[in-house]
């Protein structure tokens, strides 16, 4: 939208044109706005509204101010789930993104034969629906007849129970890593391809090796892409749902119905029939994610600022 | 600027996704249900309703029930029935609750398990069928089944199938262990468990840690009354009574000696456990035999069935595990036709026969249970044993008075968190049952009930 600055008489004509342009723009975004409002804003506002009430099976509905939110702060199930996801975040996300970055750099180095096929191969797990993937892993982990247990037993060792309550978090991290390494790798790889070739030439002339190039040129250049994957991973971690909900059938006593906050909110809504409290949990979870994402991003920005 | 937008989008997205799943559940009152003009619908009224062109919607997860519905439609050509499968058990209940709360989209009748009837009567979602003549059906059923669908003279559903409990075992494995007759008491069962484990390496059975319904069936047999609901505001919660603790400590003992397994049931691992002789038996319900037959075909001919082991020698008591009904929703605009459909499917001789032979449901009605063609049938899977006859004899031995809470979903999910966990960890089941009790009482109070313990 540029309004040309001209003589006074022409100015009103320009403003009219701008207004017409404006109107056209609004008309074009209107369908989106309507769908966005109907499918997102309204339900969101509605669940916020619901979260301020309390419904009892006996006694009906009453306004409860912030009671649901206060309850969440002392709810060991919700806090436990958040804690579990914090562990998940601190351990799984760095491993996954580290692997993704490594693979992306390896592919980008051009020293790997069949890189196209490899790229696809890494990406395939992401294309496998989460439901199928988890069912598959549930079988692989099976303590009696799963392939891992069978191989270990064939070697004469005691088979580990990968679905026990002690190892289930690790087992889940493994599934999620397997699922999303390829996805994150593609984002990083795409960013790597966008780096101008001249920089590499310059670096080579200066005598830099591949590792030096990766460390000093490539990684800094795709920092924003990496940040994107970090933020996505934080959101994804706190919203884990498919994996716990499906592993729940394979290992019901290891994966409790409050294993992750999202799974817990779902069970509160549909098993405990407490939609109001579930709404509050969902909003709190959203806020937690927002806050953590914010801190990660500002920390990153600050570091970048210091470097300059 | 770009960064700020990106951040805002990411944050908004995160809030939205979590909240979205929960929206769409609103609450509003149900529309008033039509009340019949007289205390009991007269034949003229019924005839009129059955000859008026009507479309009924029927939610059920019973596969191929269209065959039974077709019989109904042949008899009443004016009535058209839309059968919809919106999911099994909890999935369907969820959708049903959502539809009832939003005030539209609920079917005329629905499949509901015995144990979940109170969860729907508490919200006044089920039509009392007594004014439509359901009281007349009472004599068709064993007493325990009728008690499951009726309360204080009101009838809320027509029984469809049942699950009186028995003991299925692998006669070949038992024989290998030198056991020739099935255990008659739980003491014998425990002794046999030891022998079977020592001689064959198999567990005598799997008492699944995620199967509250099966465990509750065993409490039922032991005479415990863990749950109760007066239909109004008062619930009785007594999951840690002396009778119940007798059951828990019995199984705890077997679990801790590693004589029974606690593997979660109805998943791949568990099916393979049957194929690979990990389990030498299954304490289950009358639908168990046909289920096994379809799931572990390779063990055909090696099975046998017996009544549940008893707590006191000479007793003959059982519990129930599963079974369901067809209930008419109070929001229906066609109560007479809906009730007639429920009645037809579950009491018409041709239809009940199909339910047993096609859908493999274990019958609820006395007339089917006692029919010669039913009881005389032999099962090759069970080495030629007359399985139906055995379970038909067990059915009347089910303890007659057993009630449920109006929130069994929650009760079961907390069972898994407490007693189920203790089973997996070979811990103290009775202490876990105390926790279960506390959780249930807490929830009941929070939901506004008066909780008796």
UniProtKB/TrEMBL annotation, chain A:
Stored Pfam families: BPD_transp_1
InterPro entries membership: MetI-like, MetI-like_sf, UgpAE/MalFG_permease
Intracellular or extracellular location(s): Cell membrane
Keywords: Cell membrane, Membrane, Transmembrane, Transmembrane helix, Transport
Biological-process GO terms, alphabetical: transmembrane transport
Transmembrane segments: 25-46, 85-108, 120-142, 162-183, 221-241, 277-296
Record-annotated ABC transmembrane type-1 domain positions: 82-296
Membrane topology, record value: Multi-pass membrane protein
Stated family: Belongs to the binding-protein-dependent transport system permease family.
Protein name according to UniProt: ABC transporter permease
Organism: Planotetraspora silvatica
Automatic annotation (TrEMBL), chain B:
Cross-referenced SUPFAM superfamilies: Periplasmic binding protein-like II (SSF53850)
Keyword Metal-binding: no
Listed PROSITE patterns: PROKAR_LIPOPROTEIN (PS51257)
Transmembrane segments: none
Keyword Signal part of the UniProt annotation: yes
Stretch forming the signal peptide: 1-19
Keyword annotations: Signal
Organism superkingdom: Bacteria
PANTHER family, A to Z: ARABINOSE-BINDING PROTEIN-RELATED, BLR3389 PROTEIN
Protein name from the UniProt record: Sugar ABC transporter substrate-binding protein
Organism: Planotetraspora silvatica
